[in-house]
Amino acid sequence: MAPDGEIRVTETARRRSDRILAPVRIRVIGNDMHGVSFGEETITVSFNQQGARISLTHSLLPDDVVLIMNLENEIEEEFRVVGVFQQVFGDRREWGVEALNPESKIWGVTFSKPAEGIQPKVLIECAACKKAAQSPLSTIEYDVLLSTGLISRHCDRCGEHTRWKPSEQPITAELIASSVKSLSKGGEQRRTRRLKLVMRIRVRNAWGVADIAQTRDVSKAGLCFVSALRYNISDMVYITLPFADNQAPIETPAKIVWTADSSVGRFYGVCYQK
After folding, report:
1. What pLDDT sits at residue 2?
2. Which of 9, 134, 144, 273 could disulfide-link 96, Cβ–Cβ 3.0 to 4.6 Å?
């Protein structure tokens, strides 16, 4: 870091993976900053293998997980919210999201493999407990940090995800060693997270009978919903998520893989079918 606090890194490091400035039509499903579920069709501002910069009217919470579907190829993946870039106009803002599965083909592009040893490392610290870490950053994390000075990361000392900012603490051998350990734990945390969403969906069975149900949680592989109707394990159903009365339905085939009774109805677990 420069003496004036500015984060500096070589231009080679900043271009360590191809960045494409292109408006790809996407659908984003998640919870807004008030915990209310939403589904919004929008576009990317830019993207690369590590993540994307997207435009939304809904406000997000850093470190939340959202589902993004490329509406051109219908590939859906999970992304972690790194932070906000800027307000564009009205309620629309640009957000940085990091791919939880960087090897995905969601963008329909083959990215060149980044050269080793050029990933930018920045000394950052937890804004809550002041724990410092010399950490390699993904492209989207680095861009958000340059833009706003804050990113969201897991802090093993706080035991939760917190805001991190550039640090001016001296780099020591102990700090470097603890950084490696903390990054490993943070990566494990992200892989085990699930997206809790309560929203309306339409479920249609193979005979054309449709039901408006409610989700409990969703993932790129499937979802859990509650319904008063009866379905059997191995039944094929067709899911429209999210469902709105004024939108043309986009159905995804799925199979019922488990069921369970509850006081509010019957829960069904479904796995998407290709």
Report:
1. 45
2. 144
